[in-house]
Amino acid sequence: MTFYSYLATDRPLPAGNLGENVRIVKFSELPPTDDPADWRNLLDKKSLADLADEDVRVYDTELDAVFVSLTPVDGEPADRLPVSKPFVLQVDGIFEGNPESVQKCTDELLAFLRGELVPGEEAELYTCLSGEEGLPRNEQLDRDVRLEGSDVRVPLWFRDRQLVMLKR
Questions:
Q1: Is 70 found in the same domain as 16?
Q2: First-to-last C-alpha distance (Å) of the chain
Q3: Which of 15, 27, 61, 66 shows the greatest Cβ crowding within 10 Å of its Cβ?
Q4: For the whole model, what pTM was predicted?
Q5: What is the CA 152 to chain-centroid distance, rounded?
Q6: Mind listing the pLDDT tens digit for each residue in 6-27?
Q7: Mean pLDDT of 129-137
């Protein structure tokens, strides 16, 4: 099963990708490769020529491709969540597993919240397994976290049906 995390606030926050370090280059500018499994070596010359002017996203390191994605959620999916704030973003990132990726996603999300929320403002972070969006939260897991101070630890949170109140 997959965990989904949602950030709910009293006002809309910007959607987008946090921490993505990508370059856009033309397909024809990609360096050649000797790897026989590279799909460019599987195409004929005409197909390669047809792609020459296409934009390609390039990540120079594996960590450059690690980022947090914030996507608006509204209507029935948002209404089913056990949150009290009306503006909801789905939060996608790597918050378990590779320590470098977890640290980067955590830092990006916290920097975003610290930059967007004004002092005294709160946001709710709710996490649940796919298909459990309409189930009641597990109130025993509820947590308050101050964004400024020692409350913030890595890994952050993200337990099934947990609501974390983030306070700035």
A1: yes
A2: 32
A3: 66
A4: 0.84
A5: 18
A6: 999 999 999 999 999 999 999 9
A7: 91
Same domain? For 51 and 70 the reply is: no
Q: Are 29 and 77 found together in one domain?
A: no
* Amino acid present at 42: L
Output the CA–CA distances (angstroms, integers) from residue 164 to 15, 43, 123, 127, in the order listed.
20, 49, 8, 9
Coil, strand or helix at 109: helix
Of 156, 4, 22, 159, which is closest to residue 92 (Cα–Cα)?
4
- Domain that includes residue 50, residue range: 23-58
Give Cβ neighbours of residue 19 (< 8 Å, ≥ 6 apart): 66, 67, 68, 104, 105, 107, 108
* Total residue count of the chain as it appears in this document: 168
Query: 55 CB contacts (<8 Å, ≥6 apart)?
Result: 24, 25, 26, 27
Split into its structural domains, the chain has a count of: 2
Whether residue 87 is found in the same domain as residue 152: yes
The region that residue 105 occupies, defined by phi over 0 for left and psi between -120 and 50 for alpha, beta otherwise, is alpha
Helix residue ranges per DSSP H, 60-133? 76-79, 99-116
Pairing of strands 87-92, 23-26: unpaired
